[in-house]
Design a protein that fits this description.
The protein has about 230 residues and is an alpha/beta fold. Helix content is about 35%, strand content about 15%. The strands form two sheets. A six-stranded parallel β-sheet has the order 2-1-3-4-5-6, with helices on both faces. A two-stranded antiparallel ribbon has the order 7-8.
Length: about 230
Amino acid sequence: MCMLLAVIASAAAEAPELAPDPGDRRELVVLVHGMGRSRLSMFVMARSLESSGYRVLNWGYPSTARGVPVLGESLAAAVRSQRGDAPRVHFVTHSLGSIIVRWALANDPPAALGRVVMLAPPNQGSRSADRYTPWVGWLLPPIRELRTDSTATARTLALPADAEVGVIAGERDGKVSITESHLEGERDHVVVRAHHTFIMNRGDVRRLVTRFLGTGSFGHRDGRPAHPHAAAP
């Protein structure tokens, strides 16, 4: 049974996107996975958001073969073709996907931009990228753009003033530190006890994503973020 479910999930994640139905007025959430991953990594998140009433575009891309500007242009084109009658377009991103969305927002933002939730984003670059670029940068072009150098793409993309961005960082990430996840202009930031790779599959993270998309906040009590160190589900 587990094998059958995995096969079904994989097929659904890799299936081509269908044109949006005319008159579908649900808000659109675009999911953008991280480096070395596929749409399958965002499958659970997609189902969660669909159950909350959103239309979901789980966008896949060749994360190890192209630079951020090329991927950003491809994402912007996909959003234009898939927006349909959606009144707002939101984004939920993981790792490298966050930088690709930042490029799109800075250079070719969608009409009626909604909110953005970034999971484990290397917004200030990543020391892990610094460490691995000399060895694999020729093989993985995007990794060079995730360095902490002030000229790297991750450090030079300005966030539009009207963009509402929430960041969820992993306390046990191992690849992107909490400090590296912060973005100037972010509306909210929360830390959960998660590792980098599967942060998007946690129940608490999915709930926080849905809350931010709906309200623009992860939820506050007495001025402090809700669930700053949420326990593992």
